[in-house]
Specification:
Layout lengths: L4 H10 L3 H24 L8 H11 L5 H13 L3 H10 L5 H13 L3 H12 L12 H14 L2 H13 L6 H13 L3 H10 L5 H12 L4 H16 L6 H7 L9 H13 L6 H14 L2 H8 L6 H13 L3 H13 L6 H14 L2 H14 L5 H13 L3 H10 L5 H13 L3 H13 L6 H14 L2 H14 L5 H13 L3 H10 L5 H13 L3 H13 L6 H14 L2 H13 L7 H13 L3 H9 L7 H14 L2 H14 L5 H12 L3 H13 L18 H7 L5
Helix pairs in contact: 1-2, 2-3, 2-4, 3-4, 4-5, 4-6, 5-6, 6-7, 6-8, 8-9, 8-10, 9-10, 10-11, 10-12, 11-12, 12-13, 12-14, 14-16, 16-17, 16-18, 17-18, 18-19, 18-20, 19-20, 20-21, 20-22, 22-23, 22-24, 23-24, 24-25, 24-26, 25-26, 26-27, 26-28, 27-28, 28-29, 28-30, 29-30, 30-31, 30-32, ...
């Protein structure tokens, strides 16, 4: 290897005679120390490597210089070569406070916390070659920072005691580290006490205290963090980028968007430079608060890295801007950014929202090709994506190949079965979870209740209800919604109404379940009254609400009221009617015998009517014996689905009802000629009956 010319000359001179070498070293000892230290400051590799400089120092007899040895310690710890640093430290003939501080702080920073404490003990017991040094604020602060990284509250408390003993606890840097120590260990009380007792608080202390309050989910702590931020500004302690990034985490709901805008305005007014990290925090905040326009404007003004791009993609995905999120991902691929698996997880969520199975498979393949091993979080998102796209087999394959299954993995597959109509498989999987001793979180319970609702399995539903009461999650809003839907679909309307009345937060799902239940079980008047009550309480109806409402009007023959509600969808509630609503309106006119109005409505539809619309018209023709219109409806159904046998059967019944027996015989002949087969009927019955007293046994204390 090549060394510097002066060092090479000195080494060659050192090979002549021992006396000559000592004389040369004595004449140039101080300059040589400075020269070798300068080589270490130059950094880099080659001749500047600390091991080479260390060897030259030993060869030249300069190892006795404490100044040079301290420089070597710093160089070793920067690499990091902790073992070499410790070996050099043990060889040092003389050590000073800087020597101890460098090695102790470096050991703590590199995670060797036990070794750092051993060094501190040696330092305090005079193992410094005859000298006993007292640790300073730098040494104790570095040890406390190491305890904070390790989240070791016991060792951290010992460091706090040492700081008090040696009188450095009031030092600005030590006080800030102590606040951060207790904050990372989750002790808000001790962190606040350390912050309050600090005579001088740096911006690091303020930021650490705010981070401690922000990281706890209690709303009281969040309000205290905002108050602390305001107090900080009042005392003219100017926040840093880390401070702003910390306080922005508080704003995670659309209602908090104005407050987030104020913080953004504050940092702009202060002239704070928005680096990629702060830009990521701002875009994350706007994404959670629904400020997509602000996200787009901010993204065009900042310098991006992989983290800011990830935040931008997640913000778009969270707010339903799926194609914009996909474009961000393509830009990341084109720029060859080193993406982590969270990007793929967000992209899989987009595939779930769009229901794009091909895209989900492409993303899954990209992840398998890019990453050596996929983490559980990404694979859970993959199961959910395949589930939403209807590919149950792929979801099962991913689940079976998953080595470290967590409760989210099981819940994802359980939801897959429940959402795709495999209710029995969902119940069997839930039983397996119970046999394995796994927990039953809220999402798991709601998925199983949804499966029971699909099969109207009241017995299993009662057992799941009992388990939710036992787990103490029966008062959760999503569980209550699932229970209302379960009992409503099973015909236990009174029980569903009792749960509904006991709910603290009645969401649109609860209202829809009850309205649909009343409509399906012959209490249409109550369904209409419930819709009026729903508006009085300020709950805005959605598409499903109007399906139940229009169905009630159809069964009661309230044509005028049904037309009024249909017009309110677009005029008052800004809802675009779907095919289900058009079907309900055709059924409304058909049941009332107003076939001309029904045909006019079909002709005025902005889209082509599907099979359900014509089936509703055909069913009304059967009730009123309208042969001509019935034939038209049957023809339209067969054009859409030629293999469907129901038009032949219903049309045959219409002909028979008006004594057109020849036409009925012809319908039967065509039916046999087409080799159509009527689907095999099936039913699910359960002899178990439920009363309100049964529910009172499950849910104690509900009035």
């Amino acid at each position: 290897m090549l060394m510097h010319s002066s060092a090479s000359l000195a080494l060659r001179e050192g090979n002549t005679t021992q006396t000559g070498a000592r004389g040369a070293c004595a004449r140039c000892q101080a300059p040589m120390h400075d020269h070798l230290a300068a080589l270490l400051r130059g950094g880099g590799g080659g001749a500047h490597h600390p091991r080479l400089v260390h060897g030259a120092a030993v060869k030249l007899g300069c190892i006795a210089s404490t100044f040079l040895c301290n420089r070597l310690l710093l160089a070793y710890l920067r690499r990091p070569l902790l073992a070499d640093a410790r070996a050099l430290f043990d060889e040092m003939p003389r050590r000073n406070l800087a020597s101890w501080s460098i090695l102790i702080s470096g050991s703590a920073r590199l995670g060797a916390l036990a070794g750092a404490f051993v060094l501190l003990s040696d330092m305090l017991h005079g193992a410094g070659r005859g000298s006993c040094d007292r640790p300073d604020s730098f040494t104790l602060g570095a040890l406390a920072a190491g305890c904070a990284r390790a989240k070791d509250i016991v060792a951290g408390a010992q460091m706090h005691a040492c700081a008090v003993k040696f009188g450095v606890d009031e030092d600005e840097s030590v006080a800030g580290v102590l606040v951060d120590l207790y904050a990372k260990c989750g002790r808000v009380d001790l962190s606040w006490r350390a912050f309050a007792l600090a005579p001088q608080r740096s911006v690091v202390s303020w930021t650490s205290m705010m981070a401690c309050l922000v990281s706890h989910g209690c709303s009281g702590y969040h309000e205290a963090a905002i108050g602390l931020f305001k107090r900080m500004l009042a005392l003219k302690v100017w926040p840093t980028n880390a401070t702003f990034s910390c306080i922005l985490k508080l704003f995670d709901m659309p209602e908090l968007l104005p407050a987030g805008l104020q913080v953004h305005g504050c940092l702009v007014k202060m002239g704070t430079e928005i680096d990629p990290a702060l830009g990521s925090a701002l875009m994350t905040m706007y994404g959670r608060c629904g400020g997509v326009d602000e996200v787009a404007r901010l993204a065009s003004r900042i310098t991006h890295d992989v983290f800011s791009r990830t935040s931008l993609l997640a913000a778009y995905a969270r707010n339903g801007y799926n194609m914009e999120a996909v474009m961000v991902f393509r830009e990341m691929v084109m720029e060859n950014l080193a993406m982590d698996q969270s990007v793929i997880t967000s992209l899989l969520q987009i595939c779930s929202s769009l229901g794009q199975l091909r895209m989900a498979k492409e993303v899954h393949c990209y992840a398998l090709r890019t990453f050596f091993k996929l983490d559980t979080l990404l694979l859970n998102a993959t199961i959910t994506a395949y589930s939403r796209c209807g590919d149950i087999t792929s979801a099962e394959n991913v689940f079976n190949l998953l080595q470290n299954k967590d409760i989210i993995s099981w819940t994802a597959l359980l939801s897959c079965y429940a959402q795709n109509g495999l209710s029995q498989e969902a119940l069997m999987l839930f039983m397996e979870m119970l046999q394995r001793g796994l927990e039953s979180p809220v999402f798991c319970i709601t998925s199983v209740l949804r499966a029971c609702s699909t099969t109207t399995d009241l017995t299993a539903g009662l057992q799941i209800h009992s388990r939710s009461v036992k787990l103490g999650i029966d008062n959760d809003n999503s569980v209550e919604n699932a229970l209302v839907t379960l009992y409503a679909k099973c015909g236990c309307v009174r029980v569903a109404l009792k749960i509904f009345n006991s709910m603290r937060n009645r969401g649109i799902i609860s209202w829809n379940a009850l309205i649909t239940s009343f409509s399906q079980h012959g209490n249409e008047v109550a369904a209409v009254q419930l819709f009026d009550l729903m508006q009085e309480e300020g709950v805005c109806p959605d598409d499903y609400t109007f399906v139940g409402l229009l169905t009630s009007c159809s069964r009661m023959g309230l044509v005028a009221e049904g037309c009024k509600y249909f017009k309110q969808m677009t005029a008052k509630f800004n809802l675009v009617p779907k095919m289900e609503h058009y079907t309900c309106m055709v059924d409304l006119f058909g049941r009332a015998g107003r076939f001309f109005d029904a045909m006019d409505f079909i002709d005025s539809m902005p889209c082509q009517p599907d099979r359900l619309v014509w089936e509703a018209l055909l069913a009304s023709c059967r009730v009123h014996g309208n042969v001509q219109l019935g034939r038209l409806a049957a023809k339209k159904i067969l054009e859409i689905r030629p293999e469907d046998p129901s038009p032949y059967i219903i049309l045959s019944s219409i002909h028979a009802s008006v004594d057109m027996w020849d036409e009925k015989a012809w319908d039967r002949t065509v039916f046999d000629t087409q080799r159509a087969r009527k689907d095999t009927g099936s039913s699910w019955s359960n002899a178990h009956e439920i009363s309100v007293s049964t529910y009172d046994t499950l849910q104690v204390g509900v009035t």
